[in-house]
Amino acid sequence: MSLAERLQSVLVTLAALLGLGAGLLLPIGGAxxxxxxxxxxxxxxxxxxxxxxxxxGAVRRARSVVAASLVLNFVVxxxxxxxLGAGLLxxxPDLQIGLLLLLVTPCTDWYLVFTAxxxxxxxxxxxxxxxxxxxxxxxxxxxxLLLGGQAARVDGATLVESVLLVLVVPLVLATAVRLLATxxxxxxxxxxxxxxxxxxxVLPMLYVAVAAxxxxxxxxxxxxxxxxxxxxxxxxxxxxVLPLLATAVARLLRLPAAQRVTLTMVSTARNxxxxxxxxxxxxxxxxxxxxxxxVGPLLELPALAVLAQIVRVRQPAGTPA
Length: 321
Hints:
The chain is mainly α and 321 residues long. The protein contains 14 helices and no strands. InterPro entries: Arsenical-R_Acr3 (IPR004706), BilAc:Na_symport/Acr3 (IPR002657), Na+/solute_symporter_sf (IPR038770).
């Protein structure tokens, strides 16, 4: 895990504070608003460039952990997210939708890092990445429209168009670039010239998007700052309950230790950058939804770091780490 990845929560916070200060002190709010979605689109495309769809075949070799992860991520978690939102965020529709968007989108990037740290099965984790992504594309509009209820207040066509713009277009573009680069110059050249730089572009683009969003919506953040604290209890509950539930399921299925770790990490990590991109595109007139999504990684990343140490596969004494 690189230094930039270890400091991601700190850097996201700094980007938010920098954008907030600039938005309050300088007349840049309108201009900053035009920067948010392009930065997120570049970031999402860079994430997809790193995804190898060929890994999907590996899911057939670990059907129990794959089936468990799909049930936890796409059945249990959406229902749990709805319960948390309705029970703890009633009367705050924008925060409810922000929480729902965050929790129904399983992670498609940094959970691999924490799985490796915890000595989980990284092959299965990598194979689950494109599976999680495709299911997000198909199910996210359904979750928002069915579970969002009156809080959503968004036209189904608008939501689908936003998903197409923010997820499908970057996915098609990234897949085409990978395929053309591989055929033209080979996998080695592709990884060195395209995939490597793309991987280093993700976090800077996230910081740019966060800073621009807070500059754009500085007045909104100041007006609703204390309201955002209401997100902390449901997020903390999720970050405690899901690892416990995943561990219990793994033990029930008698999964090997490495697969148990993988199931725990893939069921807990969320895809806040993707959720943020969807929020900006689908709810442009409700900025508090997007602002709420920034709270997610501030709690999630430190929690995943701690969780990785708790569930880490312990090697026998005398075995090299």
